[in-house]
Design brief:
With 119 residues, this protein is mainly α. The chain has one domain (3-117). Helix content is 79%, strand content 0%. It has 6 helices and no strands. α1 (3-20) packs antiparallel against α2 and α2 (25-35) packs across α3 (40-52). The longest helix has 22 residues, at 71-92. The radius of gyration is 15 Å and the shape is globular.
Length: 119
């Protein structure tokens, strides 16, 4: 994958993260798997590399300026992500690529249906 493609994936993930507050992985991972043919493990690891930088800083500042960010709760969630990310990565690396891909797809479908049918 070239530099331009990587930047385009990042821009798309950033737009969706800023627009919907979703983690970039819900955009980055499917693009890397479906468009670029990466295996699930490589796509997930690459997504995590991209998220190491403060990619949400400007979006967070914009939400905070408008009174729409709970900094204390966000930092506590971040602490949980720090610990949970390690646990999740440990488990993911024990699974086969097809199983991991299917679990990710099931997760996305479940969340999509819950959001769609929520009153």
């Amino acid at each position: 994958m070239g530099i331009l493609e990587g930047i385009i994936i990042g821009i798309l993930a950033g737009i969706f993260a800023g627009l919907f507050g979703i983690g970039g992985g819900t955009v980055i991972i499917p693009l890397l798997v479906l468009v670029y043919g990466m295996n699930e493990h490589l796509a997930q690891g690459t997504s995590l590399v991209a998220l190491l930088l403060p990619v949400g800083l400007l979006a967070t500042l914009e939400y905070y300026k408008n009174g729409n960010a709970d900094i204390k709760l966000g930092l506590l969630i971040g602490l949980g992500l720090f610990i949970g990310g390690y646990i999740g990565a440990y488990i993911a690396n024990k699974l086969s690529d097809p199983i991991l891909r299917k679990l990710f797809a099931i997760f996305l479908v479940f969340v999509s249906l819950k959001m769609f049918f929520k009153q």
